[in-house]
Design a protein that fits this description.
Elements: H1 2-27, H2 30-70, H3 75-93, H4 102-110, H5 114-121, H6 123-138, H7 146-163, H8 170-185, H9 188-200, H10 208-226, H11 247-271, H12 275-281, H13 284-301, H14 311-320, H15 328-341, H16 349-363, H17 372-388, H18 391-402, H19 408-425, H20 430-435
């Protein structure tokens, strides 16, 4: 037995020594340090881009409200024409800048063709995304900048990696997307979870460090410029009595159904539209103009509530417990649906949170025994989790945006139930379903290097 075990111990020591030499080699490898420098520089740029995008979007939205207050009926002309112009420019020159940007990132990560990835994440698309999302807010669309910031973050990392000559982009693209979420919401943990739960749909251990580091750096840049703030302010909602917990299944059911219907409807309109909508979509500018006209009517009828990202209204409801108009949630849902389906650039994150808070506010006169802020928080997370079918991300985003740790368990229960109900209505997650539109075209399906993770 001694003669048999000695070679085994010798081989084990030899393998350990070999692994140690490899780790030492990798630690001092010029290529490894080049990749580290690339993601460090890229993460800083993502943070700067996210902050600049946020400031531009805020000014754009303020400009629309100033126009609406000064010329009340002007949106009836400005909004449809703006939708037409944005949809035409997007379809004609920047097709990868349409919509949220998250489906494009998913498609880019699934693609093994460099030219196809470049078309989805190139610098031209990134600039067009920023400019045209801001213009969409100027003309009164119900869009947000948080989803587009995901594509901007991925594009920044892709550009920096391409400039440095690094061919393995997948990990850096994922890290850039996570950093974009972290910087947009000042929610670093949500950025990491979003990368795992929504974009990757799995956890790859070898990209763990780069994702976390990119999130920390981009979030740090945002923190240095904007300060350490909670996106919606510090909310202090509580559920103390046992009866308060009855709000969890109520909000999960309503949020799950409404979010699932929104997701399924948007997928249907964009991918499998009924014949009359399909006929309209053959003329993208005409379809966008009709969507813009309806959004304009809703905006005028609601004194601007239906337009924009809904940040102010959501903050007033969650932070101050103010009751929103009963029509706010439904009108915001319709305006967001039409803005997203029209083909113009713009995201769903903030408008979806606004819809959720509006639906929660509708319940406050009925469910009077629950703190209105708690009710709106539960409905916000339930509806958002149902739309994106990413419950953990929804919980952490809402928790970090409100700095509220008292509601963690109710929020988790509501998000999981709502996402489950949504899956019964819409089998495929929204962003993954929409990503099929950005799959490689025939000219991109040529032989290409194998995909790297």
């Amino acid at each position: 037995m001694q003669h048999t075990s000695e070679p085994i111990r010798t081989n084990t020591r030899g393998r350990r020594a070999l692994r140690l030499r490899r780790y030492r080699y990798v630690g001092f490898s010029r290529r490894v340090w080049q990749r580290r420098a690339v993601f460090l520089l890229g993460a800083i740029f993502v943070g700067l881009a996210a902050v600049g995008f946020a400031k531009l979007s805020d000014k754009a939205q303020a400009l629309y409200y100033a126009i609406l207050n000064q010329w009340h009926w002007l949106p009836l002309v400005m909004t449809p024409l703006g939708f037409v112009a944005l949809a035409y420019v997007t379809a004609r020159w920047f097709p990868a800048a349409a919509g949220s940007g998250i489906p494009q990132v998913i498609a880019a990560r699934a693609s093994s063709n460099p030219a196809h990835r470049q078309s989805l994440l190139g610098w031209q698309t990134m600039i067009a995304k920023i400019v045209m999302t801001a213009l969409a807010l100027v003309v009164g669309a119900s869009v947000g900048r948080e989803g587009p910031t995901v594509q901007v973050g991925a594009s920044v990392m892709f550009a920096v990696a391409s400039f440095a000559g690094i061919g393995r982009h997948n990990g850096l693209v994922l890290a850039g997307s996570a950093a974009g979420i972290a910087a947009a919401f000042n929610a670093p943990i949500a950025g990491i979870l979003f990368a795992i739960e929504e974009l990757a749909k799995s956890f790859a251990g070898r990209i763990n460090d780069i994702v976390i580091a990119s999130v920390a750096i981009a979030g740090g840049v945002s923190w240095l410029i904007l300060g350490n703030y909670a996106y919606f302010g510090e909310v202090s909602a509580q559920m103390i009595r046992a009866a308060d917990w009855s709000a969890v299944p109520i909000c999960a059911a309503i949020g799950g159904v409404m979010g699932g219907l929104f997701s399924r409807s948007l997928i249907t309109i964009t991918r499998r539209p009924p014949s009359f909508i399909a006929a309209l979509r053959k003329e993208p500018a005409v379809f966008a103009g009709i969507c813009g006209l309806i959004v304009a009517i809703l905006s005028i009828a609601t004194a601007g509530y239906a337009s924009g990202n809904g940040y102010g209204e959501t903050r007033a409801g969650l932070l101050l417990g103010e009751q929103l108009p009963f029509w706010y949630g439904p009108s915001k849902l319709i305006a967001t649906m039409l803005s997203s389906a029209s083909g113009i650039p713009g995201g769903l994150f903030s408008p979806s949170l606004a819809v959720g808070s509006g639906l929660g506010s509708m319940l406050t006169p009925v469910v009077t025994f629950v703190d209105p802020r708690a009710l709106m928080l539960l409905m916000t997370v339930g509806y958002f989790a149902a739309v994106v079918q990413a419950p953990l991300t929804a919980v952490v985003i809402v928790m970090e945006m409100t700095s509220d740790r008292n509601m963690v368990v109710p929020l988790m229960a509501t998000a999981l139930l709502a996402a489950g109900i949504s899956r019964l209505i819409s089998r495929q997650p929204l962003y993954h379903a929409l990503s099929h539109a950005y799959a490689p075209k025939p000219q991109h399906k040529e032989a290409s290097p194998s995909r790297a993770s």
